[in-house]
Amino acid sequence: MAPEMDQFYRSTMAIYKSIMEQFNPALENLVYLGNNYLRAFQALSEAAEVYFNAIQKIGEQALQSSTSQILGEILVQMSDTQRHLNSDLEVVVQTFHGDLLQHMEKNTKLDMQFIKDSRQHYEMEYRHRAANLEKCMSELWRMERKRDKNVREMKESVNRLHAQMQAFVSESQRAAELEEKRRYRFLAEKHLLLSNTFLQFFGRARGVLQNRVLLWKEQSEASRSPSRAHSPGLLGPVLGPPYPSGRLTPTRLDMVRPWAPPPPFAPPPAHRTLPQRPGACAPPPGASPRLPVYAAPPGPPFRPGAAWAPPWWRGRRPENPYADVWDWGWGLG
Amino acid sequence: MAPEMDQFYRSTMAIYKSIMEQFNPALENLVYLGNNYLRAFQALSEAAEVYFNAIQKIGEQALQSSTSQILGEILVQMSDTQRHLNSDLEVVVQTFHGDLLQHMEKNTKLDMQFIKDSRQHYEMEYRHRAANLEKCMSELWRMERKRDKNVREMKESVNRLHAQMQAFVSESQRAAELEEKRRYRFLAEKHLLLSNTFLQFFGRARGVLQNRVLLWKEQSEASRSPSRAHSPGLLGPVLGPPYPSGRLTPTRLDMVRPWAPPPPFAPPPAHRTLPQRPGACAPPPGASPRLPVYAAPPGPPFRPGAAWAPPWWRGRRPENPYADVWDWGWGLG
Predict the structure, then answer these.
(1) Per residue in B93-122, pLDDT tens?
(2) Alpha-carbon span B287 to A211, nearest angstrom
(3) Cα–Cα nearest to A33, from B58, B156, B203
(4) Is A22 on the interface with B (CB under 8 A)?
(5) Under an 8 A CB cutoff, do B170 and A279 touch?
């Protein structure tokens, strides 16, 4: 057999072998890994749901409080939003499962037999044609030696068989390459579908979050102004400079800007006048009345709710170097 | 004690109790659930990485094939993109762990003692003042009965003590409310940070995918044109109408449009002329030469790579009702 035909033959057989021994097993493995991937998504969904259910409960407690309803509302909305994202993610998971993994699994099962049979048929056809061609070529040489008068017709037959064989091997090669290509394309297109679904998910998730994050930020800032509810305070200053709104804090994901440090709170003053303990019912005659405990001492103005304690805790306050921890670690805007 | 002061007292104590017995335990629980959530993220990352590593290997095999390099390139790029997304997700996870969970855990531990002490101090201070006030009021009544000449001063003292007490209880209430509010705000702001980080992640992920998905779609469509490599086919038609490019298929996430059915492929013709088996080396004298097997039969033109088999498989082709499975299930555009 001509070496180039032999080369075609080997090349075509190699393709079938590759499909059978590499592609299909790889696809089977991919289905297995894909199911793991799927389960990981589901576990994430569940963990997220449980977490945000807990957030919601805390939010509902805050809604029942006297001064923290806005904050409670934020927490509840965060929980709702998470459910929204979760249900979108569920659609991605369904796509992955229904449109990818199930198809991949089905195809792999069906294909093993098909490719095996295709290869067998090709091999048989090739051998048959090759044998036939060899036989006719031998016959031709014999006729040429004997100067048979039908040599010319035989030669034409042989040429025709040869051309048919050439066409056969090249078309078979082409067909095998196409089978291979179709399989790779199947995989690419299926994952294009998955990528597109993810793309949609990210777009929707971003849309859902974008407005809400700004809203929550404003609400959170608004919560810093003192409540006008009962227990009116003696003073009503705003607790600190309001955060500029409208711009979201850069996150760790923003590589350009480093993490903005939180605005420092005023540290508690080093020492204070001791509160006047109202031990005696009546002031000693002639003594000037002491300042009431709650009056603002000379010095920095009393700011209710500031990190340092109101006056009557002074000198009595439990050691609390970490009173600030609830207020820092956050630089919004 | 005046009922309203008693009410203040109970309200303030209730707030401390709520912080100690509801908020802090809830926060502890949240840290626990948050760690589960975190682990789920990490498991997802790993599962995704393993899956797309497998995709990459298949892609690399395709790159070594003769006609599927474009498709191999797509698969490899998908794998790279996944890594990109994974590393962004890792940043979200770090934010969740470092900026939320760790702080929440630390605060909860520190706060238990602080709130307990604050409550104790308030209780003691309240009782002390209340007892003192009662004592002075009793003294005042006694002096009034005896028509003591210092009654007026005593009355002033009692009034002053009373006013101080009122200020004390209302400021304490306010302080307690503020402690509560600070804790809810801490939670809200921390989760605002998390939401913002997710928002950034979704934005970046969308950006990364958007261009690539379009590119991959074009490349995938381009792969449908027959290769010009070796084994030139007898015919070179395009396999079918090229998909319109530029518009991505709606996914399951697009609720408005239903899932687009795949374009149907032409079914194999019912029957064909049997291939001429080149059994005899020489055609019978006088017989008209039969058409070569590979020539296009009268009827639909032969399309290499179409779902139905090339001519020499006809009548011999293994039963393959599912030859189409590699090509359908995908409607791009």
Answers:
(1) 999 999 999 999 999 989 989 999 999 999
(2) 83
(3) B58
(4) yes
(5) no
- Rounded Cα distance between A34 and A101, Å, is 7
* Cα–Cα dist B126/B168, whole Å: 8
ipTM: 0.73
More confident residue, B34 or A66: B34
Residue numbers in B near A18 (CB within 8 A): 61, 65
- Which of B 162-181 lie inside 8 A of A, CB atoms? 163-164, 167-168, 170-175, 177-178, 180-181
Nearest to A281 among B46, B154, B312 (CB): B154
Q: How confident is the model at residue B136 (pLDDT cuts 50, 70, 90)?
A: very high
Pair of tokens at residue B143: 């002096």
A184 has pLDDT over 50: yes
pLDDT band with cut points at 50, 70 and 90 for residue A183: very high
Residue A259 predicted with pLDDT over 60: no
Residue B259 in tokens: 């899932």
Q: Which residues of A233-253 are buried (b: 16+ CB within 10 A; e: fewer)?
A: beeeeebeeebeeeebbbbbb
pTM: 0.72
* Amino acid letter, residue B197: T
The answer to whether B304 contacts A75, with C-beta atoms less than 8 Å apart, is no
Do residues A107 and A27 make contact, with C-beta atoms less than 8 angstroms apart?
Answer: yes
Q: Which of these ranges, A53-57, B133-137, B231-235, B319-323, has the smallest mean pLDDT? A: B231-235
Q: Which residues of B touch A149 (CB under 8 A)?
A: none
Per-residue pLDDT tens over the stretch B148-193: 888 999 999 999 999 999 999 999 999 999 999 999 999 999 999 9
Closest-approach residue (CA) in chain B for A316 = B121
Residue type at B123? E
Lowest mean pLDDT among A28-42, A78-92, B132-146, B245-259: B245-259
Q: Which residues of B, range 208-267, sit inside 8 Å of A by Cβ? A: 209-210, 212-213, 216-217, 220, 223-224, 227, 230-234, 248-249, 251-254
**Chain A interface includes B100 (CB < 8 A):** no
3-state helix, strand, coil in chain A (%, to 5): 65, 0, 35
- What does B89-152 look like in DSSP terms, one character per residue? HHHHHHIIIIIIIHHHHHHHHHHHHHHHHHHHHHHHHHHHHHHHHHHHHHHHHHHHHTT-TTHH
Q: Do B184 and A75 touch (CB under 8 A)?
A: yes
The model's pLDDT over A135-171, given as tens digits with 9 standing for 90+, comes to: 999 999 999 999 988 899 999 999 999 999 999 999 9
DSSP state at residue A314: T
What would you report as the CA-atom Rg of chain A, rounded to the nearest whole angstrom? 41
Helical residues (DSSP H) of chain B, grouped into ranges: 3-18, 24-64, 69-94, 102-145, 151-222
Whether A206 and chain B come into contact, CB under 8 Å, resolves to yes
B50 reaches A (C-beta below 8 A): yes
Residue A183 to residue B326, Cβ atoms within 8 A: yes
Look over chain B and give the mean of its residue pLDDT values, rounded to a whole number. 77
CB atoms within 10 A of CB B288: 6
